[in-house]
Amino acid sequence: MPDIRLTDEEIRYATLFESMTGVTPIDVVIDNSYNRIIFVVGKSQAALAVGKGGNNVRMLKQIIGKDVEVVEYADTPEELIKNSLYPAKVIAVKVTKSPSGNLVAITTVAPSDKGIAIGKNGRNIAKAKLLAKRYYDVDRVVLA
Fold this sequence. Notes:
Elements: H1 8-21, E1 27-31, E2 36-41, H2 46-50, H3 55-64, E3 67-72, H4 77-85, E4 90-97, E5 103-109, H5 114-118, H6 123-136, E6 138-143
Helix pairs in contact: 1-3, 4-6
């Protein structure tokens, strides 16, 4: 896991998230391009953090005034990308090196879930790219 330092603003969000959900986030990513905050939580902590019927996320969204998204951390870039694209059904993720030496994750999703994986205005695939880059230095996430 990379050494990630949170800003004061991110720490405030992390504290609020923890007090409302009982889950301590591993990371907080402020994504202004999509007006959202992405909380990365430990394995099998996402359901607890989201709350019954999404209650915790809804309350946080009202308080913060931005969209709130929760992603479970994973030990591999493949698994993290899969978690980032949930609830889309990801069939496979293959990370390869491009000729220029950059890491590229080729992601295959069920054809019926392609729209979910991309998300409105590309927000879901952008989240996968953001987290894959932040944790595993993957330069591109491509839907196949």
